[in-house]
Amino acid sequence: xxxxxxxxxxxxxxxxxxxxxxxxxxxxxxxxxxxxxxxxxxxxxxxxxxxxxxxxxxxxxxxxxxxxxxxxxxxxxxxxxxxxxxxxxxxxxxxxxxxxxxxxxxxxxxxxxxxxxxxxxxxxxxxxxxxxxxxxxxxxxxxxxxxxxxxxxxxxxxxxxx
Length: 162
Description:
Elements: H1 2-32, H2 34-37, H3 43-53, H4 84-95, H5 100-107, H6 111-121, H7 127-138, H8 148-161
Helix pairs in contact: 4-5, 4-6, 5-6
């Protein structure tokens, strides 16, 4: 009984596969000559005519609208061209003792740009050097005053034991 059912399923699947192949062949034949049936000499002419129709709705996301400028809104500053001469001038001003914000304003660059120039010129200390200096200070010998409370505690313990 089960074997008969399995045989029937197998035969039906083979018939289905044959029908699908036949349908695909018929569709291919119809599509190959579609441009001739529609009255066009080539497939390219048919495609151009279809594209000219527009095709209705477009798929995908809509393009975002450009943000509208508010009245009285500030415009972006024009970017300053950093030339080698400008860098040399900034470095000279910093070495002469000029403060960062003042030098940046004088040369028309931003403070972060000024810091980038300082870093490239080697005028800044690395964080590792700052940490090493702090550790050296922390390891310095402590004052004798710090030892007095310890001595008092030891004296109190000795007094309690007596």
